[in-house]
Amino acid sequence: MGHSAAVWSDRASLELTEDSNGIKHALLRSPRGASARVSLYGGHVVSWKNNRGEELLFTSSKAALNNHPKTMRGGISICFPQVGNSGLLEQQGFARNKNWTIEENPPPLHPKDSLGKSFVDLLLRSSEEDIKCWPNCFEFRLRVSLSVDGNLVLISRIRNINGKPFSFSFAYHTYLSVSDISEVRIEGLETLEYLDNLCGRECFTEQCDAITFESEVDRVYLNSPKYIAVLDHERKRTYVLRKDGLPDVVVWNPWEKKSKTMADIGDDGYKHMVCVDGAAIEKNITLKQGEEWTGRMELVAVPSSFCTDPLDPRLKFL
Ligand SMILES: O=P(O)(O)OC[C@H]1O[C@@H](O)[C@H](O)[C@@H](O)[C@@H]1O
Q1: Residue list, annotated binding site
Q2: In sequence order, what are the residues at sequence separation of 6 or more whose Cβ sits closer than 8 angstroms to the Cβ of residue 75?
Q3: Distance from the CA of 83 to the center of ligand 1, in angstroms?
Q4: What reaction does this catalyse (predicted)?
Q5: Contact 77/92 with Cβ under 8 angstroms?
Q6: If you take atom 9 of ligand 1, which residue's CA is the nearest one?
Q7: pLDDT tens sequence across 282-300
C-alpha cells in the first residue's frame, strides 16, 4: 500500500489511501478500534478487522491484491449482474472488475444506517463498454459501513435508469476467515432446499442439523431465514450474517482437489476459508424503469460463548 492521503471529509474515521497501482481504498475505523478497507476497484471489501485487530475475512496468501485488473481472491466481492458462470457474462458479473467512484451526497438512506457509523458511499454507473455486453443502464450505489462495535454493513441499491425492464442476479461473495474448515458448522440452513452446483444445479433438501465440511461444497440454499450463524469451534468465534432482500445463501468451499486447480488460493487456503454469500440467485430481480432494489447484509463476529440466537440481547444488530 502506498502513501496515505489526508482525511478527506469531516468523518474523522474515513481515510482515502492509494496503492502503488493508483487504486484508491477507503479505510473505515470504528472508535473502538475495528476497521474495514474497501477498494474502489470493484467496491471490494478487502479487509475487516475486529477491535483486537484480528482479520475476519479470508484473503489468500497468493491473492493478487496489486495485480490490477484481476479481482483479489478473498474479502467480499460484489457479484452483479450475474452470479457464478451460468450466464453469458464473465464469472460473477462485471461490477467487481470496474472502477467505482466515491459519491459525496447519495440519495439518503434511513438515519440508522449513518448514525454513529463510519461509512463510505460508492457509485457505479453502466459504461458504454458494459452496455455492449449487458445492454441496460443502471446506477449501483454501495454503502459500506462499520458500526461502533465493529459490525460490517453493506447496502446495495440498484436502480433501473433504462427505458425497459432488466433482470439480474446478485451476491455478496463473502470469504470468512476460519481456523480450520473441519471445525466449522453453519446453522440456519437446515431443512432448506438447495441447488447443488456440483450436480448440475439439481435441487435437494438439506437433511443435516447443521452444515459441516469434509469435501467440496458448492450450493445455493433457497428462501433462507434472515439470520445465518457460522461457528468456528477452534477459534471460539461465531459470525452472524443478517440479511434483507437476499433470499438465497451460497455456501462454497473448494476443498483440496479443486484448490490445486486454482492458481491463487494457496495450498492450504481452503482450510482457512468458507464462503457464505447473501444472494439473490434462484429468482432474478426484475426492475422496471425508475425502480430500485435494495440488498442489505450485516456481519457480526462474536465470541462463541455468545448465544447464536439473534434475539440474544448481547448480539447488537443495527
Ligand atoms: O473465483 P470466485 O469468483 O471467488 O468464485 C469462486 C466460487 O464462488 C462460489 O460462490 C461459486 O458457487 C463457485 O462455483 C465458484 O467457483
Answers
A1: 73, 91, 96
A2: 44, 45, 46, 47, 57, 58, 59, 175
A3: 9
A4: alpha-D-glucose 6-phosphate = beta-D-glucose 6-phosphate
A5: yes
A6: 252
A7: 999 999 999 999 999 999 9
Q: What is the ipTM of this complex?
A: 0.97
**pLDDT at position 176, please?**
98
Sites in the chain below the pLDDT cut of 50: 1-12, 65-66
Distance 234 CA to ligand 1 centre (A): 25
99 Cα to the center of ligand 1, angstroms? 21
d(CA 20, CA 27): 16
pLDDT digits (tens, 9 = 90+) for 158-216: 999 988 999 999 999 999 999 999 999 999 999 999 999 999 999 999 999 999 999 99
SS3 183: helix
Q: What number does the ligand 1 atom closest to the CA of 250 have?
A: 10
How far is the centre of ligand 1, averaged over its atoms, from the C-alpha of 163 (Å)? Answer: 32
Give the position, in ligand 1's atom list, of the atom nearest the Cα of 85.
14
Sign for the pseudo-dihedral over CA of 265, 269, 270, 274: negative
